[in-house]
Design brief:
β4 and β5 form a beta hairpin. The longest helix is centred in the C-terminal third of the chain and has 20 residues. This protein has 1 helix and 5 strands; from the N terminus they run βββββα. It has one domain. The protein is of the alpha+beta class. It binds zinc ion (ZN). Zinc ion binds next to loops. The site of zinc ion (ZN) has 8 residues, from loops.
Length: 85
Amino acid sequence: MLTSYPVACPHESCGWTGSLVPSSLQGGARAVIASRQRAWFQCPQCQKDWEVRITNDKVSILPAVENERLNDQAKGRWQDEGGQG
Ligand SMILES: [Zn+2]
């Protein structure tokens, strides 16, 4: 039995809300997602997908910005070490 979750599309100028069944892979087949596992939803209105984490039957959107920020921190560290020599 596949479980659907009440979600709202995070993409700008869409704002679709409703219940969707998550996929285990981006663009993959609908699947049962275990708790604390990442999953993907695809919006039926704008056809874009987004990544979420499902914890205790609650859906939280994973911010795509987070990875970029980590990369910036890594770059800053490299520059600091280079400046010492
Ligand atoms: Zn949408």
